[in-house]
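Form 7-S
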Amino acid sequence: MANNKEIQIWIDSLTNSIVNTISGDSLPTEVTEIKSSDFKMITKSRG
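Output:
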């Protein structure tokens, strides 16, 4: 059984990247779905 979680975000414009609204800088962005098993690999020590 899948344990789906919901997040709430505000989208003020559609772009191909994250944009800093103060400076206007555009940051390279990639959105990827991860599995719960991937979480053990995400640590501060691994960056």
